[in-house]
Specification:
2 copies of one chain form a homodimer. The first copy, chain A, is an all-alpha fold. Chain A contains 10 helices and no strands. Chain A binds a DNA duplex through helix 3. Chains A, B: InterPro entries: Homeodomain-like_sf, HTH_TetR, Tet_transcr_reg_TetR-rel_C_sf, TetR_C.
DNA sequence: CGTGTTTTGTATTTTAAAATACAAAATGGA
DNA sequence: TCCATTTTGTATTTTAAAATACAAAACACG
């Protein structure tokens, strides 16, 4: 009962996430958020309590869909372990490339939330969300590495965990490079170099 | 003539840089800056004009000393090309390790400034300073790679420029990993993996 | 000694953004 | 239909931090 909602919650979270990504947490006002999401302030506060809570929920959703996409790739049985890693890099490069096209060169919400203190200090949940994401990402990549050792596509002298750390760090590195304006073709070479070092 | 200054300008810049690193730009108030630097607000504004200007000068100084340290290592004639790169990774790991010990796990001012929009949007100079840093860093690393090819310590089938991009991205990746709480010993393994892939 | 000049300390003003208050609107169910 | 309940729109309040104003202090120089 009561008056029905006129907006889609997930759409607001996506629009918010984009704003936060492009302008940063501190530099996006609630007014910009309202405008971007096409929602009035009272609706925002009524639904999401505060700017902090809205950010947290946006981050949660962003990470959830990002992780799903990576999981789909990294557990694709039709691919060898090495091919899975290659496809993961493809995904990252595609994301960066299309972000580039859409004008907003900015940025990776996950890496930015990690590196920029701010809300992450006040809000332990931000830390927790990011930690959990990284744990899962590391596990997924480590599994792909392990299966790459079995199918012979990857070196068998490396620990899956260490290799996974290396891959994950490479991805972050690429995101930073991309934010610095490095062209996608260069990013591709960097990704290839990283991957080559793990090949059998 | 006139009343002499009671504080050291460089010391204020260093203290400010630390605050900005630990708390982020938006979340450090001028009051915190004054307290950290041991200087009254009027002195700050009198000398540095505004919070924005103070940040820019802090960043400039921070980058300048960082680059000097890297340059010293990367142009050390006594070392082979590969050893120079290894020493560079050592420097990074040492920085991260000692930051960890001092409690403030946060953070790399350079990567954070890149990834977190904010002042960087308003201030083209921030962009310029970071671009310039990266150019120089890339050149220094590329030179080290080139000399590593000559002295036989590094693979001779890779373009110095691409290899340099790969190294620089690896460094950023390690910084992100470190910020996420990864232990220094794991960071070391990651660095070794990255370096191994370039060895002759 | 003073006098001009710069720095320093304190108190105040400005500002901008977050958050709230409250009436009007819109529905489902009795 | 009308009432309880929730959302929506607008206007206002709260807040915190950046920036300024101005008098007192400290020195160099004549």
């Amino acid at each position: 009962m009561g008056r029905p909602r006129e907006f889609d919650e997930a759409a607001v979270l996506d629009a918010s996430a984009k704003q936060f990504r492009v302008r940063g947490f501190a530099d996006t006002s609630t007014e910009q958020l309202c405008e971007a999401a096409g929602v009035k302030r009272s609706s925002l506060y009524n639904t999401f309590i505060s700017k902090d809570e809205l950010f947290i929920r946006s981050l949660e959703r962003h990470i959830s869909v990002a992780l799903d996409a990576q999981k789909a790739i990294l557990t694709e049985n039709a691919l060898s372990g090495c091919e899975r890693l290659a496809a993961l890099f493809d995904l990252i490069l595609e994301e960066e490339g299309s972000a580039r096209k859409k004008g907003h060169a900015a940025g990776c919400m996950i890496v930015a939330s990690r590196m920029a203190p701010g809300i992450g200090d006040r809000e332990p949940r931000v830390q927790r969300i990011l930690d959990r994401f990284m744990d899962r990402q590391l596990s997924l990549v480590a599994e792909a590495v392990a299966s790459g050792r079995l199918d012979g596509s990857l070196r068998n002298d490396l620990s899956p965990r260490d290799a996974a750390l290396m891959i994950v760090s490479a991805i972050s590195g690429i995101r930073v490079l991309s934010q610095s304006g490095t062209g996608v073709s260069s990013l591709r070479k960097v990704a290839d170099l990283h991957l080559d070092s793990l090949r059998a």
